Each structure stands twice: as structure tokens, then as C-alpha cells.
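User: Please run a holo structure prediction.
Assistant: Happy to. Please share the sequence and the ligand.
User: Here you go; the ligand is fe (ii) ion.
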Amino acid sequence: MADIFEALKNDHKVAKDIMRVLENTEGASKERQENYPKLVRELLAHAKAEERTLYHAMLGSADSQDEATHSIKEHKEMEDAMKEVSDTEMSSSQWLPKFRELKELVEHHVKEEEQEIFEAAREVLSTSKQNELGAMYEKEKAVEDKKDRSDFLP
Ligand SMILES: [Fe+2]
Ligand SMILES: [Fe+2]
């Protein structure tokens, strides 16, 4: 069973792989139409499950609550960027620039989580808590994966 950090890193990789595919798509191609909703669903489910597990735990400690608050704020910024992409026609030449803005936000956020936030979390969470949160994350993610995301989709 993966601890919370491994579980989160695995899903970061899933999102990065989908973004890499999308960056090389053109117009309203089948590849773009199939992979963009996949990315939206993955990012939202990941962020929600991450907030309910890791960030919920980090908010409980004075030594990590600033990091948690900062990350949750970035989740909101990613949601806004996602809505902007979804409001742009896939056939438009503006789609790729908008998508790249979202991609940069996600990459910045993920890098910060993996390089700084997770380290701050390790300081305040016991090993058993890290394992417990990993199992909780997988459950929460499975619930989130089934949710309706039409508000965020084109
Ligand atoms: Fe996050
Ligand atoms: Fe994350």
C-alpha cells in the first residue's frame, strides 16, 4: 500500500502524461476531445481527494497550515484556468495558449507540492498517519472519479 506521498505522486504523473498528449493536439481533433475531459476529471478528483486527506491533516497543525492554505488557493486558481480552457472552442487558435496557461499552473503546483509541501507534511505527520492517509486518499479519489463534472467541461 502506498503512503500518501507516493499515492499523490502517482496521480501527478497521470495528469502530466495526459497534458503531454494534449500539448501535441490540433484543433477539434478526436485526441483533444477525448483527452481534455479526461484531464479535467483527473485534476478535479485529485485535488478534491488531496484536500480531504493531506491538506485536511496539514490544516490541523500550526506548523503546516500555511502550506496547506497556499496549496488549496492554487487548486482554486487551477479550477479557474480550467474553466477558461473549457470556455474556448477547441477548434480556435486560442485553445492551445489557454491550455498552456493551465499546464504551467499545474506544473508549478505539482513541483511545489513534491519539492516543498510534502516535506513540510513529513515533519508533522507520523509514518502511520502517512500510510493511513494514503489508503484514505485512494478511497476518496475513487468516489471523486465518479462525480459529475459538467460544470467544468466544454
Ligand atoms: Fe494539489
Ligand atoms: Fe497534488
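The helical segments are 4-23, 30-59, 65-86, 95-124, 127-145.
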